[in-house]
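Exercise 7b. Backbone tokens:
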């Protein structure tokens, strides 16, 4: 695989050249939209795919496609090997101790639902009756728990945030008690960019023997993750935000927990034997992978992990930190613009409101300039409620974005001002 040369100092002109090389790995970036060079600033919704990911998926279908774990023929063996190699890549990528702790699912959403309906339900049945989440969660880390609460009579408790969009850690700690079945909290907020103090969150929960799920959908593309160092019990990731294909995600779970959990869905692959008088389930992780999985998706995710490793997450984080600082300063200088989410620890998200101009109008005008941003509540309506706004405009960055693209966004925002003057 060929990828771009990395740099550890994004402030040098050399690093600038590196980003040009990185950008060449992403064919989709090199197009015009409405006659302007595309400026893709919707990375929190989904990341773009490097050529090596596209090639890996194409090659899989051209040469290896077969169903896995079931065949002795050559193609099935190759497909199985590639799928299991992808699992091992993900395992190393997040620092998991063993590959059985990596469950391929459909998305981060499915990972949370799986844990809620198996482990969460078990914890409630064992006598705990509260689930603790935070006010800044994506709907994917609210609704599955709310469903479980409705089904079981348990209660959803919500740790509040301040007006910078930071979790109020003491309030969070005060919610923990022997009643708590689970804590489920986002590592990085998609609407605010806040990086949560997950070590403190986990440590506080573990003092009460409460297991913690981290929703890492927005963290994995930006931060180095080490699930063993964090000591989190479950971790959810979406491939497509990590520059891999859509339709595949990862649930990390501690082996002993996964082992004691009941299956989530039934079907082929998740069983050892089926007789009408007795069904025996398969070992983890296969117990949670009912039916034919997204084989090409998992293999494509493996290629994305290789690509990100090649660049180095430390390099990515350093470059994005620089870019976020530049963007924050540039946007802060625009009259009428109010940033929503100004946490001290932030990843590459800039959410804002702009006078009384509706974000959808902003998005439409920016699109005319070739700039892709997201507008709306970002599936985090409680965050919007906190700030008493219906929606924001959100620019979310990736390592292939540039200062010139931030300048284009700023120019686009001045255009918006002119249109509404
Ligand atoms: N958790 C967080 C923090 C997210 O940001 C998202 C998606 C999800 C979970 C769900 O991921 P999925 O792949 O299962 O859909 N966030 C966004 C977003 O910010 N804009 O579009 C999707």
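Sequence design result:
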């Amino acid at each position: 695989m060929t990828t771009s040369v990395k740099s550890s100092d994004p402030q040098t002109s050399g690093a600038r050249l590196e980003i040009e090389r990185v950008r060449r790995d992403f064919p989709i970036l090199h197009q015009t939209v409405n006659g302007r060079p595309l400026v893709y600033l919707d990375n929190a919704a989904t990341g773009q795919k490097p050529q090596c990911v596209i090639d890996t998926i194409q090659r899989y279908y051209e040469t290896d496609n077969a169903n896995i774990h079931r065949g002795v023929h050559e193609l099935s063996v190759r497909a199985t090997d590639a799928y299991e190699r992808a699992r091992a890549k993900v395992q190393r990528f997040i620092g998991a101790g063993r590959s059985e702790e990596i469950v391929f699912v459909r998305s981060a959403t499915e990972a949370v639902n799986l844990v809620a309906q198996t482990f969460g339900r078990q914890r409630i049945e064992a006598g705990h009756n509260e689930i603790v989440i935070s006010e800044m969660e994506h709907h994917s880390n609210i609704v599955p728990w709310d469903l479980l609460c409705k089904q079981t009579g348990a209660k959803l408790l919500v740790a509040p945030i301040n007006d910078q969009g930071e979790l109020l850690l003491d309030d969070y700690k005060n919610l923990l008690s022997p009643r708590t079945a689970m804590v489920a909290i986002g590592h990085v907020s998609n609407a605010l960019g806040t990086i949560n103090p997950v070590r403190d969150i986990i440590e506080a929960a573990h003092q009460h023997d409460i297991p913690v799920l981290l929703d890492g959908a927005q963290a994995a593309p930006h931060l180095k993750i080490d699930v063993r160092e964090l000591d989190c019990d479950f971790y959810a990731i979406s491939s497509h935000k990590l520059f891999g294909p859509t339709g595949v995600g990862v649930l990390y779970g501690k082996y002993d927990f996964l082992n004691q959990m009941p299956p989530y869905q039934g079907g082929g692959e998740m069983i050892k034997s089926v007789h009408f008088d007795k069904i025996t389930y398969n070992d983890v992780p296969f117990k949670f992978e009912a039916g034919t999985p997204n084989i090409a998706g998992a293999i494509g995710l493996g290629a994305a992990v290789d690509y990100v490793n090649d660049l180095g997450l430390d390099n990515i984080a350093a470059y994005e930190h620089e870019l976020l600082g530049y963007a924050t300063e540039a946007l802060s200088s625009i009259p009428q613009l109010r940033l929503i989410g100004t946490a001290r620890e932030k990843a590459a998200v800039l959410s804002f409101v702009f006078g009384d101009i509706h974000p959808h109008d902003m998005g439409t005008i920016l699109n005319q300039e070739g700039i892709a941003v997201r507008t709306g509540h970002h599936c985090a309506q409680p965050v919007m409620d906190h700030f008493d706004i219906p929606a924001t405009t959100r620019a979310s960055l990736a390592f292939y974005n540039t200062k010139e693209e931030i300048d284009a966004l700023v120019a686009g925002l001045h255009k918006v001002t002119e249109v509404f003057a």
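Instructor comment: DSSP finds 14 helices and 17 strands in the chain. The pocket of 7TS is lined by residues 44-45, 107-109, 138, 140-141, 186, 190, 215, 217-218, 238, 374, 378-379 (CB under 6 Å).
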